[in-house]
Design a protein that fits this description.
The chain has 521 residues and is an alpha+beta fold. Helices cover 34% and strands 22% of the residues. The protein has three domains: 227 residues, FAD/NAD(P)-binding domain, CATH 3.50.50; 139 residues, no CATH class; 116 residues, no CATH class. It contains 16 helices and 21 strands. The strands form five sheets. Strands 1, 2, 10, 11, 12, 13 and 19 form a seven-stranded mixed sheet that branches. Helix 1 packs parallel to helix 10. The longest helix is centred in the C-terminal third of the chain and has 23 residues.
Amino acid sequence: MAEVLDVAVVGAGIAGLTAAALLADAGLTVELLEAHDQCGGCAGTFKRGPYVFDVGATQVAGLEPGGSHARLCQHLGIDLPAARPLDPACVVHLGDGSAPVRLWRDPERWRQERLSQFAGSEPFWRLCAALHRANWGFAARDPVLPPRNGWDLGQLLGALRPANLASGLFAAATVADLLALCGCGNDQRLRRFLDLQLRLYSQEPADRTAALYGATVLAMAQEPLGLWHLEGSMQSLSTALEQALGQAGGRLRLGHRVERLRRQDGCWQLQGQRCGQQREGQSFERRARDLVLAIPPQGLPQLLDTPSLGASYQRRLDQLADPSGALVLYGAVDRQALPADCPCHLQLAWDDPGALFVSVSQPGDGRAPEGQATVIASVFTPARPWFSLERQAYGAAKTRAMAAIQRGLEQLLGLDPSAWRHRELATPRGFARWTGRPFGFVGGLGQRPGTFGPFGLASRTPIEGLWLCGDAIYPGEGTAGVSLSALMASRQLLAARGHRLELRSAAAELTETPGAAADRH
């Protein structure tokens, strides 16, 4: 009879890698299955000649002491990937002819910046800071949100403090509501800045971003937190987690596309096809007691039949709003063609095809040959329409989008059109092929008041032995966020088996919890 794994994890992005490494480190037999020939997902990389391009994510949070990646790496016994703090974290051009807004790492320098840029806005920033302090302390205590049984509720209640109860008054509010409350609702320039920044992290503008989420992401760039630029490429984070998985005895299976899931005789049956060179068409099967899916929940109905999902859960999944897709220009230029002291990250309010988020490689960071730089510009786009275009229309739409993004970059960076050494454009179709995500979606559910925190999709599903993690699960998007979702799902799974997992300053503690197995569902 085939081996029965303790846990199968599907999807080797940062969330799946983290969950697999944590569970293997806890002593379970774990296999991580990934359809691609490399790990990383939206935080992966690809090469074009001498250039290394980050596919999606280009910056990382959580590397500071006490940050999510720092805690997890210490727990797993691996080194943090080499990185440099971003200062400024981003330079935001509002497109109105005014001086760009620089998000400085030093809190006082950032305070002076916003005083000069957005006069009269300090009440708003003070309120955001208070909410952020409460949120950050809460998140550091590893709550479970949303709770779905008694154990989950206990973890949530144990993380609450009086400040969280006060901040809970804003659970239904948006960032735009905070602006209005502080008398800043008519500051259109501030609103434009917030819309640009929040879209990067919540996929929503200020009037649709949950206030409790927005307050924290607006503080991520400043010490003692910070945003970081990884040396080499974003792939270095995946490589570190692969190392942790291997050290703990877990197995990674690349080129294994899971196509069917079924619960039978107390185990999960996984069926799929091996893909890649000389392996196409080879089927495989796995059996596991627990299953962790680090994939977008929109893909669940394709893997599980409706009776297995249950009618109510199927309806919940059907009602999920579409995340965004992305258009991304990957380019390279001579460094001398760029402005002196060009920042690593910039943002430009741009009408066609939309606001640009731009990442420029730094000297010696491994992404381009000496004297050259990679330039990546991304813009959100509705994903589904790109899949209905016939070949000729698709080619024309892609050409138009690339030309429009290139014009924005040339204006932002003062580039001559002849400066480009390399250019190519990825659309949601390309992201769908690369990541396997439905319609090439690049983010989670959108951090609206009705989908954030206690109102979001739970990592504990109503299906026995099925757990979710990733950017659709609390606390949301970004490598730091999905890592915490993986930690939450791993803690729930282990608690259901009678164990406790806690991240501490030294090694993790794994102890028996009497009666925990009875609290599984």
